[in-house]
Amino acid sequence: MKFNLMHDKEYKSWLTSIKSRIHSAQLKAAVSVNTELLSLYWKIGADIVEKQSRAKWGDGFLLQLSKDLMTEFPEMKGFSLRNLKYIKQWHLFYSRGNRFSQQVVSQFGQQLVAQITQIPWGHNIAIITKCKNIHEALFYVQNTMTHNWSRSVLAHQMESRLFQRKGKAISNFSRTLPAPQSDLAKQTLKDPYIFDFLRLTEEYNERDLENALIEHITKFLLELGAGFSYIGRQVPMRVGEGDFYIDLLFYHIKLRCYVVIELKTVAFQPEFAGKLNFYVTAVDRKLRSESDQPTIGIIICKTKDKVVAEYALSDIRKPIGVSEYNLTHSLPKKLKSSLPSIEELEKELGNED
Asked: How far is 182 from 163, CA to CA, in rounded Å?
């Protein structure tokens, strides 16, 4: 009688463990191969820049090099003329930046090369062709490493100008949270938030905005940033004899705290801070456990006056941030029903094949 091991719990557990180790080894091998290849690219890039600066080989130098390398190594990709130009551009982007000042040299140096060779080549090309300086480029390099961004996610973050928006919101975190929690909390905020994945009429209200964000929760979480975990909307809170409802409630894995988000489709008003302070207090007292850090509140409004927001937060004891949002694809109400969605257009185009 044959025994089916797939029904044995101990075997299944052991098999899962082995699979996990194999996947881990494959990932480490892939990272190692990528690092070695990009280290080679870096050295080739340095050689190309150095040779072209002093040797009189003419403009056809890279084309000839490409032909010779592809002839010698036909099984290797990456030696096309186009890629050799990218290799040169990649090296120049970082090495030229290092010549601006001794401070930049000491700050980056070998650490820079170690970082940029840790992410895939396609990511590197996207970064150097979109970023204006080393500081911006390294921001995307480091976040790609930390959050394992795919190339499409990286492209989205650069197109939405995450570097310029991150950590720019007004908050009282420095005063209400201990370091380094306050610094980390500030970096989780953006200003403005870009909700360009929504299609709303010009006459939308707060409930319409809330509904649309939940319908696109994956894209909303991507815009909020890494670490946010969605808990619920219109979360009920019983305080005294009254029932209150929180617009959106999240938990931040890295900050280890609840995050209360209030949406406002109008300009920021001082009373918004007082109301959110009340909700944050309620979550702290009713939901927060001993292992959780203090709850954070975020007001995302259509517009804000910086001075008014700073005044409103000056005497608030709970950690609260104020940011704006942008809707770049807002539609007039009379057109909404007549225009097809992106999905509908794609479906129609696909049917023509």
From this structure: 19
Q: Are residues 48 and 182 in the same domain?
A: no
The mean predicted confidence, pLDDT, of the chain is: 85
More confident residue, 145 or 244: 244
Which pLDDT band, with edges at 50, 70 and 90, does 27 fall under? low
- Give residue 73's region: left, alpha or beta (phi > 0; psi -120 to 50): beta
What single letter denotes the amino acid at residue 111? Q
Domain presence at residue 348: no
- The residue range of the domain holding 267 is 165-336
Helix (H, G, I), strand (E, B) or coil at 136: helix
Which of 138, 159, 180 is a domain's end point? 159
Question: Which residues are registered as beta bridge partners of 323?
Answer: 300
- 346 within a domain of the structure (yes/no): no
- Same domain (yes/no): 143, 191: no
Select the more confidently predicted residue: 189 or 30: 189
The pTM for the full model equals 0.70
pLDDT in tens, 291-336: 999 999 999 999 999 999 999 999 999 999 999 999 864 444 443 4
3-state helix, strand, coil in the chain (%, to 5): 55, 15, 30
Which two tokens mark 110?
């070998």
Q: Is the pLDDT of residue 345 over 60?
A: no
In whole angstroms, what is the distance from residue 241 CA to residue 306 CA? 36
Based on the fold, state whether residues 214 and 290 are members of the same structural domain. yes
Structure confidence by residue, pLDDT tens digits, 223-252: 999 899 999 999 999 999 999 999 999 999
d(CA 41, CA 46): 9
Residues 97 and 171 occupy one common structural domain? no
**Alpha helices, H only, 160-269:** 162-165, 173-176, 181-188, 206-215, 217-224
- Do residues 125 and 87 make contact, with C-beta atoms less than 8 angstroms apart? no
DSSP type of residue 7: G
C-alpha gyration radius of the chain: 26
Rounded Cα gap, residues 251 and 188, in angstroms: 12
Q: How far apart are CA 15 and CA 6, in angstroms?
A: 9
Q: Which residue has the tokens 């000056």?
A: 314
Asked whether residue 126 falls in the same domain as residue 185, the answer is: no
